[in-house]
Structure prediction request, 181 residues.
Amino acid sequence: MTNRAILLTGLALAVAACGSKSSVSEKNASVEQVANSVREASGDQGLVSPGKWQSTVTIEEMSMPGLPFEAQEQMKTMVARAHTSETCLTPEEVKQPKGGFFGGNDSCRYDHFTMGGGKIDAQMHCSQSGTTQVMEMSGTYSPDHYEMHMKSHTEGGPGQAVSMQMKVDSKRIGACTGKEA
Prediction:
């Protein structure tokens, strides 16, 4: 999963919870089913105010047992620093989020997705082209900020497994400028 996908998944999961009046609890659900449940729970007011969100991803731990030690150390050094990006949420995305807004694609299913009372917890698995990925996500949220802890384990790629633990910290920082990624 790329850094951009990690940022968007974390943002989407936590932002999905912001501003909703009801809780959502889904099991063995597609990304579209989760999106529909969140839309129903949030009603006509949308999930959050549209605007510019700044997200910082920090890789806390990484394991790549199939790589030589030197390559693992080089990779860990490369990703050890925090990565910050900005994303614009349009009014349309806020009012009518599509299934992919919440992370994943048609090859993914949520084992569980729960949100409510300022907390979110989810586990998703994806299988595509002989690769399997399991992601666990938990965190807290408010209308203008969230913090998400994520664990990811991928197997079946080019002969190796990769496990990562990361933290995503995101906050709404103002209006969109049109220059966001």
Q: What stands out?
A: Residues 3-174 form one domain. The radius of gyration is 16 Å.
